[in-house]
Amino acid sequence: MSVVVVCLPGAPKISEEAVKKEEELDKYLETRVEELLGNCGEAGVPDLVSVLRSIATENIPNLPPGGGLASKRSVIEAVYNKLNPHREEEGACAGGEEESEEGGGSTAAHLLEALRQFRLHHRGQYHSVLEESLATYHLRGESTADGPGEGRRTSDDDRDGQQQPASPPSPPSPPPSPATAKPEASKDAPAPESDPSSD
């Protein structure tokens, strides 16, 4: 994909006033999230969705037109995660307890949480991160699934090699040790006592 930026001499420029309004809005949202998390008391820390819903009901000045609060979600998420970094871990522990009590698990909930975390941590880098993860998974699977002899080759291996020339090739398997090679050779050769042609 290509992006072309055209600059015209009479094009509008970003004013300092707009930048100040943007900074004020960010500070207001940060303090509002801090207040919501600080006022939680014994009820427990609210989740991110509750914080967003609470802020959405307020009349906030200087919100960008068209995007509104949705355009500032990243600011709210950043402050929430900074003030409550262990929220995901606590939720995961509680979810695990619920699963063991119910006898089953909610795979969809785990997948949604994994996708949300992936989206938060890898914005704009989805393609490269997925390629890297698949290559790592493939190499790890290759080392555990293949025996010490031949490796399995598929058409995916050939395509991966063409698409990812920067990834290092996996090291070759070491030759079998003499201690393990002799028993294998004796297993393959027929035993002379049981050979019917010699009788």
UniProtKB/TrEMBL annotation:
Record field: compositional bias (Basic and acidic residues): 141-156
Database matches in InterPro entries: PP2C_C, PP2C_C_sf
Essential cofactor(s): Mn(2+)
GO molecular function terms listed in the Swiss-Prot or TrEMBL record: magnesium ion binding; manganese ion binding; protein serine/threonine phosphatase activity
Family: Belongs to the PP2C family.
Pfam families: PP2C_C
Gene Ontology cellular-component annotations: cytosol; membrane
Residues in Protein serine/threonine phosphatase 2C C-terminal domain copies: 2-81
Organism expressing this protein natively: Perca fluviatilis (European perch)
Membrane topology: Lipid-anchor
Chain spans, region Disordered: 87-106, 141-199
The keyword Transferase is assigned to this record: no
Compartment annotation: Cytoplasm, Cytosol; Membrane
Catalytic reactions on record: O-phospho-L-threonyl-[protein] + H2O = L-threonyl-[protein] + phosphate; O-phospho-L-seryl-[protein] + H2O = L-seryl-[protein] + phosphate
Pro residues bias spans: 166-178
Name of protein: Protein serine/threonine phosphatase 2C C-terminal domain-containing protein
Cell membrane keyword on record: no
Record keywords: Cytoplasm, Hydrolase, Lipoprotein, Magnesium, Manganese, Membrane, Metal-binding, Myristate, Phosphoprotein
Gene3D superfamilies in the cross-refs: Phosphatase 2C, C-terminal domain suprefamily
